Amino acid sequence: MKLNFSFKGKIYRFCLVLVCLLILFSQSDVPNFKALPMDINQDQMIIEELRLKVPAEAKAVWLNAEKAIWEPWLSSKDGFLGRELLWNKEKEEALVLVTWKSKKLWKNIPISEVNIIQEKFEDNVKTTLNVEENPFKLIYEGELDKQE
After folding, report:
1. What pTM does this model have?
2. Domain boundaries, the chain
3. On the CB side of 100, how many CA atoms lie within 13 Å of its CA?
């Protein structure tokens, strides 16, 4: 009789643990279980988004450096479709939207190459403004997917 009671206790504890686990997993909203992998959209058009601090007194220098340095380089890249340069007067912020044929083509550009162009851009700006460091600080960088 004692053996039978011990076996019932073990079954009871096992069932209790099982019920608790089921409740725990059913209540948790773990995004990783439901998330799709980010690389499924590698061949869809994507927009690179950059926000920069651009003071009003340096806006013309920023535009000229963008057109002289970044524009020719970007135009030579496979997958580059175009870009927009926007400026918010109140915030003194620039928004750069670069449209790429696909994320794969965009991300295949070596970061070392991007860094060389960025250095040329900063040298151009520092020389033109006669300053020691780049006044156009990056605030945000991200990407936008084209919605249909």
Report:
1. 0.70
2. 2-28, 44-145
3. 25
Rounded Cα gap, residues 120 and 64, in angstroms: 13
Digits of tens for pLDDT over the chain (148 positions)? 455 556 677 777 776 766 666 665 666 554 444 444 555 567 889 999 999 999 999 999 999 999 999 999 999 999 999 999 999 999 999 999 999 999 999 999 999 999 999 999 999 999 999 999 999 999 999 999 877 6
Q: Which CATH number fits domain 44-145: 3.30.70.100, 3.40.50.300, 3.40.50.2300, 3.10.350.10?
A: 3.30.70.100
Sign of CA dihedral 120, 70, 147, 92: positive
CA distance 33 to 31: 5
Q: Do residues 87 and 54 make contact, with C-beta atoms less than 8 angstroms apart?
A: yes
